[in-house]
Every structure is written in C-alpha cells, then in structure tokens.
Amino acid sequence: MKTYIIILRGINVSGKNKLPMKDLKELLEDINYKDVQTYIQSGNVILKSDDSKEVIALNIKASIKNKFDYEVPTLVRTIEEWKEAIEKNPYKSVEEKQQYFTFLSGTPEEVVIEIDAKDDEFEIINDVVYVNAVGGYGKTKLSNVFFEKKLRVTATTRNLKTTLKLLELAME
After folding, report:
1. In terms of pLDDT, which residue wins out, 165 or 20?
2. Does 51 share its domain with 63?
3. How many CB atoms lie within 10 A of CB 92?
4. Which of 28, 69, 119, 151 has the smallest number of Cβ neighbours within 10 A?
C-alpha cells in the first residue's frame, strides 16, 4: 500500500461546505482507505491505498458528493511528489509566513502570467505555483481563483507550515 496526501479545496471556508474532519475520516474509512489521518479543518488528509491517485480523487469526490451533496475539488499526491514540491521551493530564503504552495490539478500549458502583484511574486514549477506573499496570503492577488482562471486548472493553496506538517505526518 502506498501513502498519499490529499488536499481538498474550499471546505469549511466562511461557513460554506461544512465538513467536520471526523466525518471526513469516517467517510474515507467507510470506502476502505487505511490509516486515515486528517490535519486541521481545511481538508488535509493522509491515507494508504492500493488505488491510483486518479481513482482516489474520483472516489473521494463522489463520496463527498453522495453524502454531503456538494462538489469538492480533490488533489492527490504521493510522498515523493510532496517532497519534490518542497525541495523545489524557490522562496526558501524568505520569511516562513510568506511562503505558500498552490498545488494544481495538472501541469499548465501556459506558465507566463502578467499581473501587478505589488511586492508579491510567484514561480510555476510543474504542477505547483510557489507564492511569496510579502503582505500575507489574505492580501495577495495571487489566489486560487486567479491561478485557476489564468492556468485553466484546479488550484488549492497551503502555507509552508502545513505543507511541511503533511509530509511529516505522511512519513510516520
């Protein structure tokens, strides 16, 4: 069995798409995923499965839709892919609280984007957008919606602390 890191987009945000992590964990165990762990309330999961990433994503999306009646974009990564994303971070030298990882559902065809993001900057490497949000992520124009519109892929963002913690949990 392989260990996977799953990140869901848009749950438990401003009272929308409420999904308690206890309920998510039970749902995933009910559909036969093993060693399911959740981390904080924003849709971070570690689990083990013999299924492919694509099958896991489809199963989770369908199960959430069936049980809670809403769509949740679901991204699945292997430990190796997660490690690679962390290793390629071009903003390692900036303050930790400025570093964000926007994970994409696929590698975008176009990676040149024009935007006046003030002091904020980004770099796209494969299926991750690395964001240096100088004023904090809440104030940046470099949001999930911005990248989804420009790159035509699903995007969900995690800060450096969460990204590192998910790897730590997956490695246990």
Report:
1. 165
2. yes
3. 12
4. 69
